[in-house]
Amino acid sequence: MVPLSDSLDTNIQNFEELFKDCGDIVKRKFPIGKKKQIWAYIAYIDVMIDRRVIEESVLEQLIIQVRGVPEDLENTDDDPFAFVKDGGLATADLKEVNTMDDITLAVLSGDTVVMIDGYEKAIVVATKGFPNRGVQPPDTESVIRGSKEGFSEALRINTVLIRRRIRDTKLKVNQIQLGTRTRTDIAVMYIDDLVRPQILKEIEQRLSYFNIDSVLESGTLEQMIETEWYSPFPQTQVTQRPDKVASALLEGRVAIVVDNTPFVLILPTTMNCFFQSAEDYYQRWYVMSFVRILRYCAAFLSFAIPGFYIALTTFHPAMIPTPLTFSIAAAREGVPFPALIEVLIMELAFELLREAGVRLPAPIGNTIGIVGGIIVGQAVVQANLVSPIIVIIVALTAISSFAIPSYSLTSAFRMIKYLIILLSSLLGFYGFWVGILIVLTHLVSLKSVNVPYLSPFVARDIHRSDLNDALIRMPTFMNRLRPIFVKPNSQVKVRMDIKEKGENNVFTKQ
């Protein structure tokens, strides 16, 4: 921590030495006052600042207003530094700093620094104006009904999108910086009277565990704060939707907003949260309950179908009905590979097509999907490399994985699928169920910030109403209590003040 000197020339020399060979730094030394000139120095990074604020609130005020009122500086006992700070800058968002480290951090963060000769302190004016793409629809969580706003790469825009939905003074934004070189701004958001203190303390401790040089994306923090790093299952929920973050905060959870990324982390989380979509609460409860059951079934099919087929055809063909056996045998006629090799060929080919479709531009990516799914699939069948039923199984597996709302959870099931395939090819149905048992045992032991991962199905201290928003989403008026994440004394979220009898009872069947 290098303190500032009362000599402006010394401060300028130290500052410009730090920013040597940085052509994007804009700096200027200029006098204020007429009779007795007092020298000032201003510095900022081009394009990182709001030029209108610089010109109207800083430069115009310092050069025109202060120089036009020389008597205030020369013929009074007022502190010139205080005069410039309180009367020479037309903005309320400013602060004093007294070290060179604070000055460099402010400039690198997009603020403007004003140093005045004769003072061992400087003024930092908030002039951030980063270029960003603004608020756009989220491209990973599309919904039919609901908000079309998505997070952007600007931290302050993201926090505003959340505050716009929760207009409560209990919503707290604890801003910190991580990364010794990147000094990335991170906002930890929570509702003070809903979050459990032990959960908030645990998250803050995990954020302070590591001294890392760079945090370029929220995925870096996600991997740092997960204790079960060996697990394929995500222990942090990731979203681009402000309404989903607002809903999570109202459940007593904590959101971590990272600068330079549109993906916000939500802690703690459970597997049940990954099957919930934002529009589940905007449409009829029985429709979305049916859809949610379909998602659970699709999640099971996404990793179980290939292994089940291998176990059935390789070890237990007697369990297949006779007509279906003849059909499978006719389809596999001429195929030189066993079922295991067929499945691996198609699964890995689909993984390659999926990766190619993601990396290529959108128009070309769609073309790759069509070419891979239709032309290549038909070609390998006609070449007798795989049987048609394998193409059907792999396609059904892929469609099932796309039905899961969370991409992170989908990736976990993609990895588990190969474990089930391996065990099924070695031990048949015994290996298939051993693989399922291994996965369930791991999920039961898994926790996210000390919250059981399979809540509310296995947690000991849950309330019966927690199941109202699990496999089936009950009507809104029946979900009176918040889930397990919230403080025990702040569970009630829906209060109904209606009469038991009478024509004014809106719940009375007419």
UniProtKB/TrEMBL annotation:
**Chain ranges passing through the membrane:** 293-315, 335-353, 360-380, 386-407, 419-444
- Alphabetically, which GO biological process terms does the record hold? spore germination
Q: Name one GO cellular component term.
A: membrane
InterPro entries named in the record: Spore_Ger, UPF0353/GerABKA_families
- Record flagged with keyword Transmembrane helix: yes
Provide this UniProt record's keywords sorted from A to Z: Membrane, Transmembrane, Transmembrane helix
Q: Which family does it belong to?
A: Belongs to the GerABKA family.
Tell me what this protein is called: Spore germination protein
